[in-house]
Automatic annotation (TrEMBL):
Pfam families: Oxidored_FMN. The keyword Membrane does not apply. Residues 7-356 form the NADH:flavin oxidoreductase/NADH oxidase N-terminal domain. GO terms for molecular function: oxidoreductase activity. This is NADH:flavin oxidoreductase. The keyword Flavoprotein applies.
Amino acid sequence: MTDPKLLFKTVTLGNITLNNRIGVAPMARVSATFEGLATTQMVSYYKSFARGGYGLIITEAIYTDDKYSQGYLNNPGLINEEQTRAWKKVVDSVHQAGAKIFAQIMHVGALSQGNRFIQETIGPSAVQPKGKQMEFYEGKGLYRIPREATQQELSEVINGFVNTAKRAKTAGFDGVEIHGANGYLLDQFLTDYTNRRTDEYGGSTENRVRLLVEVSKAVREAVGQDFTIGIRISQGKVNDYNYKWAGKEKDAEIIFSQLGSAGLDFIHVTEYEAWQPAFPKDEETIITNSGLDNSDLSLAALAKKYGKVCVIANGHLEDPVKAKEIIEKGEADIITLGKGALANHDWVNKVKNGEPLAKFDEEKVLRPDVKIKDFEV
């Protein structure tokens, strides 16, 4: 490597400066109270990463309304004063330890398997999700068939993201990440087989990305220009790991260029292995006007190419060499760790000091009393 210390250089993200280019990826947890309040256990959990040297911590997904957004029981929310006060304790502890923290805000849509407010689910269309509910989160059997969301309900979805982002700002978070990945509601709109709508939100890729763009613009308008906001994007889903965008690079161009023009400060891209080509090599390649073969570009590189904003890359980058390479190549500005962070809450300090890294051990890390699961795909 030409610059072995590249990971530890400061970087500006929106209106904030991070101490380094290493973050903790958002990972689903079920350790909040039934009422969705962040707990003292969560304060300790997030603070431990800050003490371990991570420049940025992105929280687990936080639900955005008292209707259809909650994904699991004991999933935290940020929709009222009590929840805001509880999250402020987390934020303050992370800041005291020297790191920045973003709230990841999410509507789960058709993949809900535990909602204390409403039993039915909504989605872009009445399409049963693939796969089975996750037993780790006390789900059982097939997912329910969602009801197609009305346009009025989509307005309520947008308002939920807006109000939760405003509460995140009140709680002292340094920014928010809109969850547009992993098969949840916004990604359900983006995905061709779950979105069969015939209105302006369905059909073409331009239409299917519309809700993500509208949410991004609405959040930006609500929080102002001085608050960092971004969005998480993936191809794979928690219930369909191998899914790829049918339009390949053309879809990437449409999706990332639209999001890059929506007022966002960053796009957080997650793949199983962040450095791998976004689309299978044996498929038809796309040749640019210059004659260069773009078939080997990673999804992060495509986000950088078309989004023209800061890019965060996620996906098995716990090897410091892999992490450095993706930044050195200019494919990403920041990397986040999931399993690597769970195994090494002090990954940053260990790498700085040349100490050996622990390997991810599910039996040790995912203890029943802690109830943490990594949804990195």
